[in-house]
Structures are given as structure tokens and as C-alpha cells.
Design a protein that fits this description.
Length: 340
Amino acid sequence: MLESSVSKRAAVLTACLSGLALIGPLASSALAAWQPTKPIEIIVPAGAGGASDQMARMMQAAIQNNKLSPTPIIVTLKGGANGGEGLMDMQASAGDPYKMVISNSAIYTLPLANKLPFDWRKLTPVSILAFDNFVLWVNANAPYNTAQELIEAMKKEPAGAYKLGGTGSKRADHILAAAVERISGVKFSYIPYKSGGEAATQLVGDHIKVNVNNPSENVAVWRAGQVKALCVFDNEPMDYPAKVAGDKSWKDIPTCKSQGIDFQWIMLRGVFLPAGVTPDQVAFYQDMLGKLVETKEFKEYLEKQALKPSDLKGADMVKFLEQDEAVYKDLMTQSGFVAN
């Protein structure tokens, strides 16, 4: 079940991304008839300084610097209830074309784990701008340099002897850790933290043995030589050859698949409008975001954060969301993370 559902998700993603060359120019070429006449609010369902907040601030600056909107962009943080505050605010804002939300896999995990009365189908999907990679990290002084060596070391210890830190219980990091356990036949003690940055600090201090942070959350301590990257949970290495940590680049990190953990795990960075907006309002935002991804600021941000580029929109975005949600539900059910 685990392999088949994840393989289906990967196939859908590959098919959708391969179609961008056909749908992207058509979607972004038409000028939208609707134009905003007052400030546009980007809702961030997360706390200050996190990956979503950073992305929103970059978007705000790039849109305004490149004059992609006739009105200002305002960023509003609504991270209460693990992001539920921001999602519920969007769901309650039907018909308001002056709000957009940046969200990730929390659009699935929060409703499933906490019975949050939220459904992404009650919003209007606009575009998936990028995907986060996940990397398996260990302390720089750890005696293993590959995922295989880590797993073999774990098998010699009692179950749960190795602490793995992540961002939040029953969220993407925790689900990934549970999947690795099932594939590899090991058992972590999962420690939830408030942020990926806190998990990185705990790994540097050797208070945990492993984490599965995004590149952006561990890049500073990797560059400082305090952690090691064992593998990336994708079907191919990251496409960024510039040296980051000594003589190592993001592209030098091998795939976990090549090291015996055959599992792809990437997380969407998507933009949604409320329900009830008009087609020409959607067209304005798709056109604006289509231009955003071509800006210098956005491309530099992708490389700095080692993100996987995307410009999924329309029916292809909806298709991916439906498949991705099914994978999350399947994995969370297997791990006992779905609230009864």
C-alpha cells in the first residue's frame, strides 16, 4: 500500500510537471480583465520566520519591485492552532479576491489529525509555485555517512533509542519518519519541536540523533560543518550545483532511494484564493504568479532554499492535490495519526 500510493503520487507529479511547457504560456499570456483596486493580503498560516513566512516576504518584495500588481501586497501571519487560524479565515472569506493564502501539506494534515472543519476544496486553487525537498540529516560527528550505515546502527540498538526531531506532531516530518520506520524496519523516538530551526539546533547539540528538515532549515548549520546530509527523499538529486558546505553542493546529496530507502517525499508550496471568486480574478493571480516565477528574486530564492520549481495551476493543480491528499491520508492512517 505504501509503495503503490507513493508511486502513484510521483507519477501524477511527473505527468503534471511535464505538461507545464504546454499549459504555462497559455495560462499566463492572457491579460486578466479584473485588476485589484486595494491592497492584496497574503495570509500565512504559520509563525514568524518559518518557511511560509519567508516565502510570503519574498513574494511581497518581488511583486512590488517588479510592479506585478497595481496595488500593495500585505503579509499577515495567522499561525494560531498550528495554522488552522489562517486556513479557517480563508475558508470564511468566500468571494473576497483580495486575500490569498500560501499553504503546504497542512491543508491535509490538520483536518485529518485534528478534525479541523476545513477542506481545501472550499478554496480556489491558483498555483503551486514550488515543492520542498526533505533531507535526512545527522550530527557532523556521527559515525555514519550513508543512510544504510545509520539504519544498520539503529538495528543494533533497542527500538526507540534514536531520537528524531521534527516540526510538529502528525505533520509532514512525523509522517516521513513513520514511513522510514516501516520501510527500514527501525523505530525512532519522535520529538516534535516548534520549528525546523529548533530541530536543527537540537541536532547540532546532539540532543537528537536525526532530523528530516528541509534544506533551508539546516543550511546554516550544514554550511558551518555541524551536520551531515545523508540523502534526499526524491527520485533525483537536487538540481543546484553551487558549493554550499565546503566542497558539497545540494546536487551532491544522493537520493535516499539509492541508499535503500525507496521513498519520495516532497511538500507543496501552493497559493489559494477564497471560494466564490470570478474566473477573471483567478486569471489575474495566475498571470501575476506566472510572471513572479520568472523574476530574479524568485529564482534566487528557489536556489537559496533548494526548492523544486513548479508552476502547476488549473486542472493539473487540482489533480495533484487530490492525489497528494490521498497519499497523506493513506500514510497517516497507517501510522495511526487520523483523529477518530
